[in-house]
Every structure is written in C-alpha cells, then in structure tokens.
C-alpha cells in the first residue's frame, strides 16, 4: 500500500528504491529496526475521528464528526506521511521520507500536525454529532 502511494507515473521500481533507501537511512539514524519505526509512525499518525461534510435541505453544509475505522485510518496516515514528506525541504525523496517517518514515530512533524488538526475539527463540531 505504501509503495503504491509513493508511485509516480507508474514507476514502481523507483518507488521500491525510494522506500528501501529511506529504510536504510532510518537504520543508520536510529540504529533500530526500520520496520518498527515505520509501524510506529503509521500508528501515531492514524486518526481516530474525523469530519465528514453533510448537506442539509436548504443548501447549507455541516462538518459532522465521524469515527474512522482502521483501514481508512491507515490509508489516511500513509497519505499524510507521504504528503508531509513531499513538502519537506531536502535533497531527495528517500531522505525526506526517512526524516518524516522518524519525526512521526517520535510524535512530531507535518503528518502529526495534520492528525491533530483533524481531531481539533472534530472536537469543534462535536455539537453536530447527532446529524450522523
């Protein structure tokens, strides 16, 4: 799933290279198992609750908080991690991805900020939860 999200213009072998180089950099930086760092980063970024737009009769829309299930939450986490790593300043994608994964596993970085923003939106619109 992660490889297919890294994928650009159908170049899967390049996506594999990017991921493996990022894993090697994580191994050098943290001196721990890079798969553990990857799993921990995804677990920390996975949102529990989000908002969904619901339309009312007269054209108005409301942001209704909804609970996010595990597969959808994991997909969002991967998307946010890759988006944050693409926005980072750095040399190449493998370097940016490794930095973002290490930061996310420690509980900081752009993807964690995105998760907290989603949780804040859901908390702000908690009064609309009965519109589910």
What do these coordinates show?
By secondary structure, this protein is mainly alpha-helical. The protein has a single domain, classed as Ribosomal Protein S7 (Orthogonal Bundle), CATH 1.10.455. The protein has a two-stranded antiparallel ribbon with strand order 1-2. A hairpin with a 5-residue loop joins strand 1 and strand 2. Helix 2 packs across helix 5 and helix 4 crosses helix 5. It is elongated, with a radius of gyration of 17 Å. The two termini are 30 Å apart. The mean pLDDT is 91.
Layout: helices, strands, pairs:
Elements: H1 2-6, H2 12-30, H3 34-45, E1 49-55, E2 61-67, H4 70-87, H5 93-106, H6 110-124
Antiparallel strand pairs: 1-2
Helix pairs in contact: 2-5, 3-4, 3-5, 4-5, 4-6
Average pLDDT works out at 91
Q: What is the CATH C level class, in words?
A: Mainly Alpha
Unreliable stretches = none
- Which structural class matches the secondary elements? mainly alpha
Q: Total number of β-strand segments?
A: 2
Note the beta-strand portion: 5-15%
Discrete helix count: 6
Name the CATH superfamily assignment.
Ribosomal protein S7/S5
Task: Order the strands across the largest sheet as they lie in space.
Answer: 1-2
Shape: elongated
The largest sheet is:
2 strands, antiparallel
Write down the secondary-structure element order. Answer: HHHEEHHH
Radius of gyration: 17 Å
The CATH topology: Ribosomal Protein S7
Distance between the termini: 30 Å
CATH architecture: Orthogonal Bundle
Subcellular location: Plastid
Protein name: Ribosomal protein S7
InterPro entries: Ribosomal_uS7 (IPR000235), Ribosomal_uS7_bac/org-type (IPR005717), Ribosomal_uS7_dom (IPR023798), Ribosomal_uS7_dom_sf (IPR036823)
Pfam family, one: Ribosomal_S7
């Amino acid at each position: 799933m992660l490889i297919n999200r890294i994928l650009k213009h159908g170049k899967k072998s390049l996506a594999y290279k990017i991921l493996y180089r990022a894993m090697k950099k994580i191994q050098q930086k943290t001196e721990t198992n890079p798969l553990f760092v990857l799993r921990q980063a995804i677990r920390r970024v996975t949102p529990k609750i989000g908002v969904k737009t619901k339309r009312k009769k007269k054209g108005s829309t409301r942001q209704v908080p909804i609970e996010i299930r595990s597969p959808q939450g994991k997909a969002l986490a991967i998307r946010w991690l890759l988006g944050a790593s693409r926005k980072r300043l750095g040399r190449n994608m493998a370097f940016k991805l490794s930095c973002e994964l290490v930061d996310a596993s420690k509980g900081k970085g752009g993807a964690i900020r995105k998760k907290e923003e989603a949780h804040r939106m859901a908390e702000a619109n908690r009064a609309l939860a009965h519109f589910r």
